[in-house]
Amino acid sequence: MTIDVRPCSSREELKQALAPIWHFFGGTPTDERMERFAAVLPPERMLAAWVDGTVAGGAGAFPFELTVPGGRVRAAGITVVGVFPTHRRRGVLRAMMRSQLDQAHENGEPVAYLWASEETIYGRFGYGLASLAGAFDLRRDRAAFAQAYERRGRLRLIEAGEALEVIAPVYDAVAAETPGMFGRTREWWESRVLPDPEFRRGGGGELQRVVVEIDGRAQAYALYRLHISFEAGIPTGSTNVIEAMGVTPEATREIWRYLFDIDWMNSIKAGLLPVDHPLFFLLAEPRRMGFRVTDALWVRLVDVEAALAARSYGEGQSLVIEVADGFCPWNEGRYRVPGGERTEADPDLRADVTTLGSVYLGGFTFAELARALRVEELSPGGIARADALFHADRAPWCPEIF
Fold first, then answer.
1. Which of 5, 77, 245, 314 could bridge to 391 as Cys pair (CB 3.0-4.6 Å)?
2. Contacts with 314 (C-beta within 8 Å, 6 or more apart), sequence order
3. CB 351 within 8 A of CB 376
4. Catalytic residues
């Protein structure tokens, strides 16, 4: 069987390449969904794996600007990867991963990252678990804050037409300092975030948009949906929070207080939250959230030298990391950090490229990975020095699955 992986050259080929992933969602890409995808995913960013004249698999990569500690770096946001069940276990996925990482390398994208639908797949291709995300389902009568405070600002529900201009600056400010988030273009907002088609509602109401204005400027926002229901006249519905964030701790507190106080709702549900969310200390009974944690972002350093050079580092003595990378051999070698330049000096640590992916955004430490036998310390104190250099002030977070 010959597998021919190549970028799509037309809208029709893009549709064919999306068909494998849509097979698992129980359908085919509709014209509406094709329009939204095409707005942010040019055909040439979608690979199709052709076998005997038909598409057997597809894999896309959004062109992102990824926030990393201390800066931003061009990144491939891997998406819609799928292989028809008729062609499983025949090397189609591996062939697409090979072509996709080669393409990212040629495009000058030092990092690739993704949300893994199956977490056992991507470690084989150099992706390391880089962040965790949480979710909660909190009863409204258990949503009191630990400390009383004087409310600030003005709450305002906004129409769809003004949402982009009002809330995008809030997102941009948060994304600029949060590893794992990416810069959203106007097209991304208009095709991915703000549309409100029926299939997204899951039995709930229309998408709601609210902002907190402090000193005349929007400083926090939330996108949410109300699922109204009653039982024997008693409200049993929920407020489902899709996205909520603020540029300051005060604004963040205000937006969540608003969400917890919406009448006629019995509970508040939210997901894709950072594991260091301030709600753990804002709430009087944080245990009542029943906060559930799962794996989130997986990161792959496509160009180790460029990726290491793109982020900042904490204070501490430099060290040398010897990197093994069987899938992208151009990364094999020794790198000095801070800086990321190649060196022939004796290494202080030895690790697979997946380990660097796990620590790159600051979500995990070398010490954690050493306890799992994923990194080898070659000089005394090397792991502690590495953790001091790779330290980040906040947990990586991405508020949406792409």
1. 314
2. 388, 389, 390, 391
3. yes
4. 122, 402
